[in-house]
């Protein structure tokens, strides 16, 4: 993912407008989203370009980041998403993977892949 100055971008798991989780970044900080709310903004060591990997394993979501796509580091905040379902919110039947971009400037997503575990 590459962002222009003033832009924010990231990966999310989306249930509906009020219930999603994810990890994004701007040039200086990460942006974490949980229960559809922007949460912490820890420092981003990668700047305006990074690789992001999202894994949903047994209702636990993990994020890994990398500067080069080879050496990965687990983001220190995982998220438990067992309540992100139709029994809680109604509607459709699953979390859906997504990308997002906000702010000013352009965002480029390259080499996006989706794989079932």
Provide a concise account of the structure shown.
A 5-stranded antiparallel sheet has the order 5-4-3-2-10, with no helix packed on it. Strands 6, 7, 8 and 9 form a 4-stranded antiparallel sheet that branches. It has 117 residues and is mainly β.
Give your account of this protein's structure.
This protein has 117 residues and is mostly beta strands. The protein has a single domain (2-108), classed as Jelly Rolls. 3% of the residues lie in helices and 46% in strands. It is built from 1 helix and 11 strands; from the N terminus they run βββββββββαββ. The protein has one helix spanning 86-89, and strands at residues 2-3, 7-16, 19-25, 30-34, 37-38, 51-57, 60-66, 73-74, 79-80, 96-103, 107-108. A 5-stranded antiparallel β-sheet has the order 5-4-3-2-10, with no helix packed on it. Strands 6, 7, 8 and 9 form a 4-stranded antiparallel β-sheet that branches. A two-stranded antiparallel sheet has the order 1-11. A hairpin with a 2-residue loop joins β2 and β3 (19-25). It is globular, with a radius of gyration of 14 Å. The relative contact order is 0.30.
List the helices and strands and how they pair.
Layout: E1 2-3, E2 7-16, E3 19-25, E4 30-34, E5 37-38, E6 51-57, E7 60-66, E8 73-74, E9 79-80, H1 86-89, E10 96-103, E11 107-108
Antiparallel strand pairs: 1-11, 2-3, 2-10, 3-4, 4-5, 6-7, 7-8, 7-9
